[in-house]
Amino acid sequence: MEKRQNEVIEIDLLELFYALKKQILWIILAAIVGGTLAFAGTKLLMTPMYESTTTMLVLTKETTLSSLADLQMGTQLTNDYEILTVSRQVLERVIDDLNLDMEYEDLKDSVQISNPSDSRIMEITVTYPSPKLAKEIVDDIAAVTSEFIGDKMEGVPPKIIDEGEVPDHKSSPSTMKNTALGILLGIVISCGVVTLYTVMDDTVKSEEDIEKYLGIPTLASVPDRKDYITGKKKKTKKSKPAKKR
């Protein structure tokens, strides 16, 4: 019984393979349409975003830069500074300095802060539709953060190592990636439709289908001779008589 079930599965997979092969042109067309729509949507509907990054160094004392205690304290302070950098007081001051038409939450969502493990380096990255404003925003955030931390924590403010640069290329969206996803989505949808149609199609097409769906053996079959139904008989070629020598 198990062997028979395996044979049925193999037949179904083979039937599905031939169904997909038969509709290969429609699948290719769906892939082209999906890729074209994704490409056009990326170019016309999505706003390009640009990233600019500045780097800051967290210090505990200006005179000690290499002691182990200073390094450990600086690493701990970096975690605190990450929170203070995106605090409301800092970002609202940046909004006022640059006259940005956005709320505090919107600016906070565009700021990313990273800290390499076991280091006192803090990287601030701003993502914005304008490459020039992306640089201005990240530079102002670094300056305001350094001043704010120096005033509030009464310690050595973080030092700005690298200022932001005006990006030449957009960081997102990726036209190539979205186009590839559109092509893949077109293939998946078209193959899904063909698979669903094949699975739902229970029409009898052969002797095997009769036994498969009805569970009864086939005793005989009548050939489909459409030429007799239409009254058109196939002309048989008469063999030419052999030439007499």
UniProtKB/TrEMBL annotation:
Its main location: membrane. The keyword Transmembrane applies. Residues 10-98 form the Polysaccharide chain length determinant N-terminal domain. InterPro entries: Bact_polysacc_biosynth/exp (IPR050445), LPS_length_determ_N (IPR003856). Keywords: Cell membrane, Membrane, Transmembrane, Transmembrane helix. The chain crosses the membrane at residues 24-46, 180-200. Pfam families: Wzz. It is a multi-pass membrane protein. It is found in: Cell membrane. The keyword Electron transport does not apply. Belongs to the CpsC/CapA family. This is Wzz/FepE/Etk N-terminal domain-containing protein.
